[in-house]
Amino acid sequence: MVFKKFKRKAQGFALKKMMDKKGVPQSQKDMILGMMEKNPELFEKIQKEIKAKQKDGKGEMAATMEVMRKYQAELQKLAQE
């Protein structure tokens, strides 16, 4: 349990740094991090599916887009909460 909390915080920190480098506006950063806090299990599931598709030979962008489309409704619901 403690390890999962640490892992989530580390992932959140890494995501923040990545978004800083990409120049993502603060409002979008807050929205994304808020969504992750509301449903971290969903984002873990998304991450695992993306990695699995990459192992099957898909490129990172193609795998990400495919998985994100699959969970689009759930992500939209989180964004509206």
Q: Could you explain how this protein is built, in words?
A:
Helix 2 crosses helix 3 and helix 3 (40-55) crosses helix 4. The radius of gyration is 13 Å and the shape is globular. Helix content is 86%, strand content 0%. It has helices at residues 2-22, 26-38, 40-55, 60-70, 72-80. The chain has five helices and no strands.
In brief, what are we looking at here?
With 81 residues, the protein is mainly α. The chain has helices at 2-22, 26-38, 40-55, 60-70, 72-80.
Helix proportion range: over 70%
Count of discrete alpha- or pi-helical segments spanning 4 or more residues: 5
Structural class: mainly alpha
**Sequence stretches where pLDDT stays below 50 over 5 or more residues:** none
Main sheet summary:
none
Strand content: under 5%
Q: Give the N-terminus to C-terminus distance in angstroms.
A: 26 Å
**Series of H and E elements:** HHHHH
Round the Cα radius of gyration to an integer and report it: 13 Å
State the shape: globular
Mean pLDDT: 84
- The total beta strand count reads 0
